[in-house]
Amino acid sequence: MVFSSPAFLFAFLPVTFLIYRIIPGRGKASNTAKNALLTLLSLVFYAFGEPVYVLLLLASVVVNYLCGLLLQREGRAWQKAVLAGTVAVNLGLLCVFKYAGFAVATLNSLGISLPVPEIALPVGISFFTFQGLSYVIDCYRDRTLISRSLLKLALYISFFPQLIAGPIVKYHDVSLQIDSRETNPTLTAQGIRRFIVGLSKKLLIANTVGRMADLAFGAGSALDIRSAWLGALCYCLQIYFDFSGYSDMAIGLGKMFGFSFQENFNYPFASGSIQEFWRRWHISLSTWFRDYLYIPLGGNRKGKARTQLNKCLVFFCTGLWHGASWNFVLWGLWHGVFIILEGLLPPPGKLRRTLWRPLTLLVVLLGFVLFRAETLAQAGNIFANMAAGFDFTLEGASLLRAMLTPMNLLALTAGCVFSLPLLPRIKALAEGENTGAAVLHVGSYVCAVVLFILCVMHLSGAEFDPFIYFRF
After folding, report:
1. Set 322, 335, 441, 458: catalytic member
2. Residue 204 near residue 429, CB atoms below 8 Å
3. Mean local confidence (pLDDT), 385-403
4. Could you confirm whether 322 is annotated as catalytic?
């Protein structure tokens, strides 16, 4: 896949940025030219990886644009019909490409014999479909947001930094930025620094602990309680640094082009409850489901029973959004069950808040076993060894040695340290003094240069593993 090619990425990004900055002026004409350039290059970016499915992306843009225009017609019944039709078209495309095979295989498991369709999954379809839905729903709620410019909507849906793996950007958050935005050396420097931090998360931590997780999840009978728990921990760190790393890169690139994207992660492993975890983890997805599913279903306004049902539906959809597999569905429901249990308990006291933090981490860690496992049987093997894997063999000892190499241990330690909010605390302390703030500011850029050198050295000696969320 070309998206996983460092040569392509490191050639595309600077060329795109340089061409963008060459366009002169700050007026409306200049902004339109810049938007046209970014849209064209974003489509080129997607076409390099998915040459056929770029037509699907364009079709999504055109359908949502036309439906937005149709919402201008007066009449609540008409507008509801347009909205329902648009939602059906968007979700229909998603179901065909992402869930058709899963649905047929599920029916076949019940005794029905149907051919299972083999349809290649377009990269990023879950992300650009949800952004299209965000646009139409926002326009239904506020018709002043309806765009008469196809170019503006095309840029919103196809902008390359967040096109294939998020974060999911809501239309009302960036509508004004598409019309007018500023770029300057300070924002560019901040964007490059953020991009390097994200790249470092991916290359230096996520890829390394990911190989440890792969060893554990593929170990079979060699697994024991030590490697099972270590593998589960490593996957927790892998998916966090992999996805938050990509989000950092997208936010950094957006800033370089004048866009301000909202944060997508806020140290989720420091959460004191599952509800707090979802306020900190994949924030763009959890807020999307809150704004466009949970609240329209009634939220918590229609009684306790309906509230719990709404939560179950949201987390069922959250799991299913991640992939066409019962593992993902169970992962979503696993979180939904604990969200409901938390809501039924009385307000936490000091003791419960203290105890709930490690319990939250345990629930998250066990849930990610379901998320990572390719089958329920594989997840069951991991769980069984986490609970009672006391059969220590030579094969198990060899597996543990392969996992605990010095480089792997270094990455594991760094992952555990930097998954906690230590850097924000250091920044808060330094900002209390002018000298400290200046030193921290300069030091952050020095660290970024060092990290970039380390990333280049890493790429020269290893393959670039694709980001986990490319497959969603």
Report:
1. 322
2. no
3. 93
4. yes
